[in-house]
Amino acid sequence: MASKVYKGRGAIPGVIEGIAMVSKETIQGWAGVDENTGKIVEKGHPFEGMSIAGKILILSGGKGSNGWSCHFHSARVRGIGPAGFVFPKMDSRTGVAAVVTGVPTVTDLEVDPFIAIKTGDRIRIDGTNGTVEILSE
Amino acid sequence: MVRLTDYEQEMLDGKYGKLKKKAMENIVQYANVLGAEELCEVTKAHVFAGAHSYLHAVESDDIEEVISEMQFCSKEKLSMEKVGCYCQTDCGPMDPIKFKSMGCTEAEGIKNKEYLDYYSKFGINKVGTCVPYLTGFIPLMGEHYVTSESHAVLMMNSLFGACGNADGLEVGYWSAICARIPKWGNHIMENRKGTHLFNVDCEIKTKTDWDLLGYTIGRFLPTHSIPVVQGDLKSIDIMYLKYFYASMATTSGPEMCHIVGHTPEAKTLEEAFGGKEPLEMKTITKADIDCSRKLLNDQSEGKIDYISIGCPHLSIGEMQQVAEFMKGKKVARDVVFHVWTAASIKALADMNGYTQMIEESGAIVLTSSCPLTSEKKPEKADRLAFDSGKQAHYIKPSTDAPVHYGEMEVCMQAAIDGEWRLI
Question: Cα(B391)–Cα(B395) distance, rounded to whole angstroms?
């Protein structure tokens, strides 16, 4: 079966393959991500206890602290940051996170990623050409 | 791609040195990620300074190495330069003087001072507070600023008509150096119209009512929306709004929140929505507010060890209230009671005798930080209480102990009684 490719806008260039972590509910920055372990610590979040290390995060946006970006930045410097981001719509918190982590990032997707992509899917994102491809569901 | 002026292009080309070049490279990349068409001039930057723990990701004692990577995203070591606009510091990781009384070591205190002194050499004022608008940082309507404090964005956009986004950690430093930021989001006045209407159908009178109202609206607010609040809100007061916006920016991510008849871009409901219909409407009831209180206040009672008030930092009027309440009373043995404010406000409290009145009770007045930003609490903290939704919400994931929430007076009484009781 041919893999599905969705078109969007490339925000940070580069191509990466990885496992998707998809949540319409965004993660809070402060007390959301433990930058020492890469684990989500936000109480009651669907990802609570899961690690962002090497994953492609698909989130609706940022919330909480204006320092949302620094937790992903710090995790990236420690080598346990996300491998890529997909944001259906960019906001100021996610925009900075994309720049400071420097990982491939795609935004403005033509489909609703929360319907099209599920946590655990293996995907390839191309931040240069602005595409998201589902390799295996 | 973003369009640059000649001066901006020169900064990007390196005509004004390596740091301005790197700052501009980051700003240009950020602008392109957002889809901004041009930049705007920033007049004020409120920056997250001090030896914060997230900086430890760079294993180095060399401040410039740490700053280069964590603030400027540069592998090459860069030196700070004189800032390009007015700058003052946000909360740091500790009280710069009484850090030992909050559990920080001498070495941590020295390291923090080293960072603050370093930034200060380049023109960043050591103010150390999350309430910049009470300490000399007041951007006016249409003025472009940057801040690392989430509730300060809501305050300064919504109340003053100033222009900022919720992006100020690394961006704060980039903008401080090159005095530019992408003209995007709330930097464009047409983008600031309301999207969601909240009708308040319950009594909002006290500081805690406002705090819980903000927390509640945030719980219901979809990502990327701008709330418009209307109702019988005659009790409105800037000192209540700091809690309202702090809690709202905890459970959600808005950068603008109109209050009909009170905030300048919402003189009427029609103006708040720019003549458009709200995408959704929600009535906030007493049951919604009660639910937020339950979420924040652990439903248990017993002996308490740690109480902290002053998030956002207390104003001089609030320091007066605390002093008048605590005068002649004693904090229970084995209870640690912290009262947080800005250093400049503490200086006024000292002059007015409030610090002495508070500390004679056994409470400790601290400045320039809070339990959340310091990530410190007393060693024995088996039951904790806060009068701030923001603080209670964020501290919960860091402890297995019950976390309580209540009115400032309830927290102070618990400090005196040494016990938290369910009302």
Answer: 6
From chain A, the residues in CB contact with B169 under 8 A are: 66-70, 96
- Cα–Cα nearest to B402, from B381, B417, B418: B381
Pick the CATH number of A4-136 from 3.50.30.10, 3.40.250.10, 3.30.230.70, 3.40.350.10: 3.50.30.10
Indicate the pTM of the whole model: 0.95
Instruction: Tell me, rounded to whole angstroms, the distance of Cα B65 from its chain centroid.
Output: 27
Alpha helices in B252-285 (DSSP H): 269-273
Closest by CA position to A58, among listed A92, A13, A4, A18: A18
∠B330-B333-B337 over CA atoms, to 5°? 65
Give residue limits of the domains in chain A.
Answer: 4-136
- B128/B263 same-domain check: no
- For the stretch B73-132, pLDDT in tens is 999 999 999 999 999 999 999 999 999 999 999 999 999 999 999 999 999 999 999 999
Interchain proximity A70–B30, CB inside 8 Å: no
What φ, ψ does residue A98 adopt, rounded to 5°? -65, -45
Q: Which of B159, B55, B340 is nearest to A67 (CA)?
A: B55
Does residue B1 belong to any structural domain of this protein? no
Those of residues 246-265 in B touching chain A at CB distance below 8 A are: 249-253, 255
Q: Report the SS3 class of residue B245.
A: helix
